[in-house]
Amino acid sequence: MSKSKPTRYRTTNWCSYNASLKKRGSLTVWFDPVMVWEGLPTGRRGRRQSYSAAAIQTCLTLKVLFGFALRQTTGFVEGLLRLAGLAWSVPDFSTLSRRQKSLTVDIAYRGSDGPLHLLIDSTGIKVEGEGEWHARKHGASKHRIWRKLHIAVDEGSLEIRAVEITGNDVGDAPVLPALLAQIPEDEEIASVTADGAYDTRRCHETIAERGVQAVIPPRKNGKPWSPTSPGAIARNEALRAVNRFGRTIWRWWSGYHRRSRVETKMNCIKLLGQRLMARDFDRQIAEFHVRVAILNRFTALGVPLTQPVT
């Protein structure tokens, strides 16, 4: 069989997409005067918090976006408030560090018009230790620490809909149920696409319980499972299709190539920093969530719309 020519694509909304890329680099920062900056009463005993969660997230967002340290973030926000003519106080670096540990980051998303097509993947981000070149040249120390980021991206809007952070000793497959649990039950999911690392019985069963199509390539040495559940039956059908037509045709037929978009999103996450600045695990979770909120905001500004060129 002759090799098919790669499909060429053309961007149809270049003008609006070009404008959105310029907006991503704009230094304009808007502070709503009616924004709840000071902390609100909680109804509990004791002194209330001086700053709201929105104020802490605003400061941490600027910290992650520009790669500042905590003290630099405090000075930067203070200068912005002075330019805006707002007489608001600024949380000091110790307040930001303390509140980051328990902060619940508000991650906004637009949603899709139809059912979700979730693309799932994971990657590692360094916390401590030497870089890859130093490790290959001089050897790695015992204090190299990594965290694993697991995300689920909506193919339609290209926004991150679910995120989980684990240690580097946790595999990919055990985290998939937690990612799907973050999608509301009343929101319809059409398919879940992931690589062969998620070809486990628990992953297929979790996907089948939501009535969703699983687009997961069977392992190369995979054997048929006992057809005792809907997840096992769907996986066996994919295995038969791969054995009969080959993996290349199965990937084209199932739409597995869509998973490249979540890999692109992973690269965008690392563009905000190749390593984490926080050292505490709870603070690292908040730092990851702030990155996700920033990327979803960038995506909301505009994405390219492409179509195949005939």
UniProtKB/TrEMBL annotation:
It comes from the Bacteria. InterPro entries: Tn903_transposase, Tnp_DDE_dom, Transposase_Tn903. Residues 22-130 form the Transposase DDE domain. This is Transposase.
